[in-house]
C-alpha cells in the first residue's frame, strides 16, 4: 500500500466521522430544539441553515468524501482485495448510498420544498410538524449511521492493510 492511500484512508476515517458528527447533532438535539419553537421560528431557522450549509467547509467534506469514497472503492477492488479490500469497498459504498444518496433523494428535496414555503401559512406549519420534522430527521439519522458505519468499516480495513511504514522507514536510517 502506498503512503498516499494510507494517508487518504486515515483522512477518510476522520472526515466520515466529522460529517457524521454534524448529522448526529441535527438528529440528536437541533431538530428537537427547532420543533420547540412553535413552527414559524423552526421553519425560519431551518431555511437559514439550509442556505448556510453551502459554505465551503462542510460542503467540501461532504462532496469531497463522495469522491474519496469512489477512489477508495476502486482501489479496494482493483488493488487491495481480501478482508481489507472488502471492508474498504463497503465503507465507500455505505457512504455513497447511505449518506450521499440519501441526501440527494430525501433530504435535499425536503429542504427545497421548505425553502419555497411562506412562513405565515398554515400549510407550512402543517408540513413542518407533520412531514418535515419526522421524515427529515429519520433520513438524517440514516445519514448519521451511514457515516459512522463507513468510518468504522474503514478503520477495520486499515487494521487489515499492510502499512507502508513497515516496509521502508521515512526518516534517515541509523
From TrEMBL:
Transmembrane stretches, start-end: 6-26, 56-77, 83-108, 142-161
InterPro entries per the UniProt record, alphabetical: Anthrone_oxy
Record keywords, A-Z: Membrane, Transmembrane, Transmembrane helix
Presence of the UniProt keyword Membrane in the record: yes
Membrane is among the record's keywords: yes
Protein name as it appears in the record: DUF1772 domain-containing protein
Amino acid at each position: 500500500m502506498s503512503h498516499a492511500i494510507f494517508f487518504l484512508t486515515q483522512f477518510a476515517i476522520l472526515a466520515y466521522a466529522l460529517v457524521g458528527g454534524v448529522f448526529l447533532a441535527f438528529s440528536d438535539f437541533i431538530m428537537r430544539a427547532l420543533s420547540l419553537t412553535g413552527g414559524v421560528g423552526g421553519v425560519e431557522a431551518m431555511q437559514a441553515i439550509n442556505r448556510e450549509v453551502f459554505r465551503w467547509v462542510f460542503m467540501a467534506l461532504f462532496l469531497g468524501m463522495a469522491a474519496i469514497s469512489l477512489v477508495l472503492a476502486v482501489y479496494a477492488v482493483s488493488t487491495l482485495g481480501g478482508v481489507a479490500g472488502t471492508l474498504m469497498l463497503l465503507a465507500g459504498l455505505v457512504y455513497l448510498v447511505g449518506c450521499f444518496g440519501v441526501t440527494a433523494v430525501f433530504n435535499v428535496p425536503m429542504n427545497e420544498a421548505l425553502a419555497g414555503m411562506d412562513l405565515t401559512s398554515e400549510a407550512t406549519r402543517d408540513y413542518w410538524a407533520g412531514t418535515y420534522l419526522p421524515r427529515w430527521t429519520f433520513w438524517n439519522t440514516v445519514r448519521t449511521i451511514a457515516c459512522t458505519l463507513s468510518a468504522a468499516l474503514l478503520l477495520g480495513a486499515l487494521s487489515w492493510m499492510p502499512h507502508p511504514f513497515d516496509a521502508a522507514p521515512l526518516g534517515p536510517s541509523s
